Amino acid sequence: MAGTVTAAPLLQVDGLQMHFPVREGVLMRAAAYNKAVDDVSLSISAGETLGLVGESGCGKSTLGRCIVRLYNPTSGQILFNGTDITKLSQKALLPYRQHIQMIFQDPMESLNARHSVGNILEEPLVIHGQGNAAQRSARISELLDLVGLPARSRTRYPFEFSGGQRQRIGIARAIALRPRLIVCDEPVSALDVSIQSQILNLLIDLQKEMNLAYLFIAHDLSVVKHISDRISVMYLGRVVETADGETMYREPAHPYTRSLISAIPVPDPNRREVRPILGGDVPSPINPPSGCSFHPRCPEQQPRCSEQIPSETIITSDHQVRCVLHGASP
Amino acid sequence: MTLLDVNNLSCEFDTDEGRVRALDQVSFSVSAGETLGIVGESGCGKSVTALSIMRLLPQPMGQIVDGAVTLNGQDLTSADLQTMEKIRGNQIGMVFQEPMTALNPVQTIGKQLMEGILLHETKDIHTATTMTMEILEKVGIPSPDIRMGEFPHQLSGGMRQRVVIAIALACKPALLIADEPTTALDVTVQAQILALISELQNDLGMAVILITHDLGVIAEACDSVVVMYAGRVMETGSVFDIFDRPRHPYSKGLLASIPRLDTVPKTELPVIPGIVPGLQDLPGGCRFSDRCTHAQPTCSTQTPPLTAVPNESSTAQTHAVACLRWQEL
């Protein structure tokens, strides 16, 4: 799967850091930094889905927001089709905005309650100066049809829809400008089980139809594995392991990935087993542990884990891990 | 031995759109030491069931209109307030979903924990303090003497949920009702909390009602399961009945629609068409009939009774299903 997706990546993130200052005192000086994203590199090819999993506070949403430039990253590069968009001004960024769109977790909070669905879907077209009124109207009908909403929806308001339908509106807005990449931030976490699968199917269909690339952020590993070609696991602002879904599930290399997979409740009572449970909580990204930030919780920690930040080891071309257990270095 | 028996419980709410029936003829029972899972989607009545048992329905909108809830032979639907106060927190403990809103932000952990103990167990503050430290230690909170003086905001989400569990267990209840206890938590912390609940259950021999929308959690933790949809019980049975031989089209659809770690990626998932209906616009007859792919005209006129599936009760629980066509399907 990942092998068939070719050559130059659509999106290339290199050494990205996003540090938020924690301000204190009368002068509001930065007393410390919340290192929400600390040295992340990844790439996504056209038409590919990269899943991003991790626990709350690991920086996965911050990373997504940096990529759509809702935040200005502290350092590092975000290359879209070879162009560095990290430092572009808002004006220079506009042409790229139509290629990189976003779907949010809570469809009620991300849709303007005072705008009709027609207005919500028309807004991106107006901002980017696409078509005249009649063409825009035709495009709205097309979009509603694509995401499986009835045509009469356009005059209605977000509160008149159920959660799953609202998420469909959010998806229609995201694809309105025919983007190349969509950052999906927990798009199904707020939905009922029977609705989740409808939305996942829709995302998969749209990807095939429009050759979309997704950065799919979620905490539910079964959902991520279903929709992704490759998966990256994040812990405290760093990517600790990247692999295709099958490898990640069958041969996880990082102890954190293994703990994460074993913690997922399996919907089959015949496969109940006593599994090792990862103790402790995710530490604060303001003052992360030294060395490998997972070492205080790691079942396989060694003395050197607290001293050095493990570098990336390439197990196969599709499988990279950051853990001293797999390091070539002594 | 049956500890709690819920029989034909119905409850109604007054809303702006008129009176709606949030629970309709719900029946199940829980024995001591057993874990019963109630599973369903939003609006199916899982939480209303818990609130009805505790007699905590919002007043005056919510009313129990029919049925009985019997705890150890005592009917709770007709019990007066004083009786209920003796039962809540003492015989039935409750764990809520959101540990931040379930705790009082301006009171210390110790004070909130001691409230129940001072009310039900002892009047002596020193004994109460010792008991509080013991229970905090039991739920895995390190250095309980320091934690007792702290406020909820000083704890992490997982720690807060441990405190909420400690409060629920402070008086060693016979029944613990946990309403989505792990939904707001990360998976690794969820595994910790579920392990804690089952460990404490073994220690105290209590019954647990675990309310969740997560079928994975049900399969891991429960002995028997009640599948609810739009205020009615669709299917009930042992956890193996429900997962290995589901009979109701809704249970089947639900189980088929969840992505699993071993399904082939990027394939079309089976779906249940349509949306979860609001309680104002339910179809007639079987409440699932408008989304059911096997529905026939009779399904929307006749209410299917909960019928026992013969020769299939793997354990003490009966496998029962509320579908007119379960035998053909």
Automatic annotation (TrEMBL), chain A:
One biological-process term from Gene Ontology? transmembrane transport
One function term, GO molecular function aspect? ATP hydrolysis activity
Whether Nucleotide-binding counts among this entry's keywords is yes
Q: Which residues form a coiled coil?
A: none
Which residue intervals define the domain ABC transporter in the entry?
A: 22-261
Where on the tree of life does the source sit, at the highest rank? Bacteria
The keyword Nucleotide-binding is assigned to this record: yes
State the UniProt keywords alphabetically. Answer: ATP-binding, Nucleotide-binding, Transport
Q: Which NCBIfam families match?
A: oligo_HPY (TIGR01727)
Q: Which PANTHER family match?
A: D,D-DIPEPTIDE TRANSPORT ATP-BINDING PROTEIN DDPF-RELATED, TRANSPORT ATP-BINDING PROTEIN
Listed name of the protein = Peptide ABC transporter substrate-binding protein
UniProtKB/TrEMBL annotation, chain B:
The UniProt entry, under SUPFAM superfamilies, shows: P-loop containing nucleoside triphosphate hydrolases
Where would I find the ABC transporter domain in this sequence? 4-255
Q: Which PROSITE patterns match?
A: ABC_TRANSPORTER_1 (PS00211), ABC_TRANSPORTER_2 (PS50893)
Task: Please indicate if the UniProt record lists Cell membrane as a keyword.
Answer: yes
GO BP terms: namely:
peptide transport; transmembrane transport
Please indicate if the UniProt record lists Membrane as a keyword: yes
Task: List the CDD domains hit by this protein, alphabetically.
Answer: ABC_NikE_OppD_transporters (cd03257)
Q: Which GO terms describe its cellular component?
A: plasma membrane
Tell me, in one coarse class, where this protein mainly resides. Answer: membrane
Give the UniProt subcellular location, in the record's own words. Cell inner membrane
Catalysis: reaction(s): a dipeptide(out) + ATP + H2O = a dipeptide(in) + ADP + phosphate + H(+)
Q: Which Pfam families does the UniProt entry name for this protein?
A: ABC_tran (PF00005), oligo_HPY (PF08352)
Q: Which GO terms describe its molecular function?
A: ATP binding; ATP hydrolysis activity
Q: What is its EC number?
A: 7.4.2.9
What is the membrane topology here?
A: Peripheral membrane protein
Keywords of the record, alphabetical order, are: ATP-binding, Cell membrane, Membrane, Nucleotide-binding, Transport
Name the family.
Answer: Belongs to the ABC transporter superfamily.
Q: What is this protein called?
A: ABC-type dipeptide transporter
Q: What is the lineage of its organism?
A: Bacteria, Pseudomonadati, Pseudomonadota, Gammaproteobacteria, OMG group
